[in-house]
Amino acid sequence: MGSAGDDGAAPVRLDPPERLSRTVTAWEGEAGRAWLAALPDLTAELLRRWRLTPERVLAAGGQISMIVLVRDAEGGPAVLKVGLVNRETDQEHAALAHWDGHGAVRLLAADPGQGALLLERLHADESLRSLAEPRAMLEATDLLRRLWVPPAAGHPFTSVADFTGELAELLARRRAEPYAADARALIDEALAARAGLVADSAESFLLHGDFHHGNVLAGDRMPWLAIDPKPKVGERAYDLAWLARDRLATLAAQPGSRAAARRRITSLADALEVDRDRLRGWSLFRAVEAGVWYLSVGGREDGELLLEFASWL
After folding, report:
1. How confident is the model at residue 7 (pLDDT cuts 50, 70, 90)?
2. Which residues are CB-neighbours of 241 under 8 A, at least 6 positions away?
3. pLDDT, position 88
4. How far is CA 28 from the centre of its chain?
5. What is the mean pLDDT of the chain?
6. Exposure of 141 in the CB half-sphere (CA atoms within 13 A)
7. What is the three-class DSSP state of 150?
8. Which backbone phi and psi does 108 adopt, to 5 degrees?
9. pLDDT confidence tier of residue 209, bands split at 50, 70 and 90
10. Is the dihedral of CA 200, 206, 210, 216 positive or negative?
11. Most buried residue, 29, 82, 176, 229, by most Cβ within 10 Å?
12. H or E stretch at 151
């Protein structure tokens, strides 16, 4: 196949994979369908502009982004990521640029307005989930130490306080919905925990925002690198809360799940010198908020599992 940037070459049309179409349609409705319809033309334009030759679309790619393995004009391997731009993803490029490959995938080019990123090629089929949990947690905590750096002056990132303030307002409104009836006590506890946490937080680090084993891939220049940040600025316990509930289905299936979840909170807090109570509070809020969101979009199984985890804390 000739390069998509070659003169006279036919435009390359790449259709979104089924998983992407399904999740974007379920989560974003009509706006998601419109974005999906425009995605093949947008991707073709990016291939032409950045002189990329597509190899294949990753069927298992992102939930709100299309991932294309490509070759650049010199034949080097890279990844084209074209994602739906929203309040969580619109600063991904800025975080990757700030980290500049230290602990995270290297950004090669970006068109933020179109949600387009050209990234170094990692091993998409080898995440931290390929490791046994104890080893994966050690690698994950080591990587977080590199990612947690001060943001630059005048940075564009949303603060944890502001972002979770919006989420708290939505959660309070969803509390009245029939699907949330059984979760109202947990919702009240989560909202109170969040209010206390933002009232006295003094830390200001650049955070990944969506850090879990699946978002850490094997690389060539470093053993493990983070991908897919949804960056925020704030305290480290907020970032660690996602990791605290990693492999949740496995955790829930084992005997003594409640005690195991609490031990994990303690272990992660001690390993990264984060206050245990603050990690517990953010883990509670983030699990409840995500669980109720899943209920709101019809994802009852995922929602109930997250709320069960929150009840253990």
Report:
1. very low
2. 279, 282, 283, 285, 286, 287
3. 80
4. 17
5. 93
6. 17
7. coil
8. -100, -35
9. very high
10. negative
11. 229
12. none
The three-state secondary structure class of 135 is: helix
Model confidence at 11, pLDDT cuts 50, 70, 90, reads low
Question: CA-to-CA distance for 280 and 288, rounded, in angstroms?
Answer: 12
Q: Which of 75, 116, 82, 119 is nearest to 225 (CA)?
A: 119
Question: Position 225: which residue type?
Answer: L
CB 87 within 8 A of CB 36: no
CB 211 within 8 A of CB 239: yes
Of the residues 72, 90, 210, 302, only one is catalytic, namely 210
Question: Which residue is listed with tokens 């600025």?
Answer: 233
Q: What is the largest CA-CA distance in the chain?
A: 64
Q: Are 272 and 145 in contact (CB under 8 A)?
A: yes
Domains 18-121 and 128-312 fall in the same CATH topology? no
Residue 175 carries which side chain, given as an amino acid letter? R
Amino acid at 109: A
Residue 5 has pLDDT above 70, yes or no: no
Q: Among all chains, which residue has been given the structure tokens 């390993």?
A: 271
- Helix boundaries (H) for the chain: 18-49, 92-99, 133-147, 160-174, 184-199, 236-243, 248-253, 257-271, 276-296, 300-312
CATH of domain 128-312: 3.90.1200.10
Choose which CATH entry (3.30.70.670, 3.30.360.10, 3.30.70.260, 3.30.200.20) describes domain 18-121: 3.30.200.20
d(CA 256, CA 33): 43
Euclidean distance between the first and the last CA atom of the chain, given in angstroms as a whole number: 54
**Is 239 annotated in the active site?**
no
Q: Other C-beta atoms within 10 Å of 15: how many?
A: 13
Question: Nearest Cα to 119, choosing from 240, 229, 4, 239?
Answer: 229
CA dist 51 → 12, 45, 73, 122 (Å): 12, 10, 6, 20
Task: Let me know the angle formed at the C-alpha of 266 by 276 and 293, rounded to the nearest 5 degrees.
Answer: 70
